[in-house]
Amino acid sequence: MTTNPDENLIKNGWLEDVWFHVDNLSSAHVYLRIPEGADWTFETLPAQVVQDCAQLTKANSIEGNKKDNVTVIYTPHSNLKKTKGMATGQVGFHKDTLVRKVHLKTRENGIINRLNKTKREEYPDLEKQKTIHESKTLKEAKEARMERERAEKALEEERAAERYRKKHAYDDFFSEENMQSSETTGNIEDDFW
């Protein structure tokens, strides 16, 4: 049995992927995978990247490609909700507040032509990629948590040492070495009369 490509992408997308679709029309699902090392998030995607993905989504919609003034919606993959009874390729959202819209007046052939020049067709094992990515992400999160815990422990030890120093700052003040007997210094009271 062959799995629908859209369903496979919905099932095996990464949480930080960004999903694009023409609003209220049948269209391809376009997924943006944030490049490794890029400091982009869903909230900070460069406007040109959003425009490129929106144009690509419009161009791959049979109905949307023929129309002017279409809206393309996009959201993080983690916001996609697939429930039983939904049609193939159909999704909902966990939070509507995480859905953004881009209005496209027309198809921009310059953008589509530029993107088509770099087009590559690949058929990766999406489930395997997701498993590897999640494993790597969990390992990085664990290492970051352990580093945070080490730093917090070192800071607490430093604070405890400082509290001890403050509490015991005068412990040696009255030691025998620091005390001078009245025999060696004379009668201190005589100095004040």
From TrEMBL:
Residues covered by the NFACT RNA-binding domain: 6-94
Top-level division of the source organism's lineage: Eukaryota
Coiled coil: 132-161
Keyword terms of this UniProt record: Coiled coil
InterPro entries: Jlp2/Ccd25, NFACT_RNA-bd
Family in the record: Belongs to the CCDC25 family.
Protein name in UniProt: NFACT RNA-binding domain-containing protein
Species whose genome carries this gene: Yarrowia lipolytica
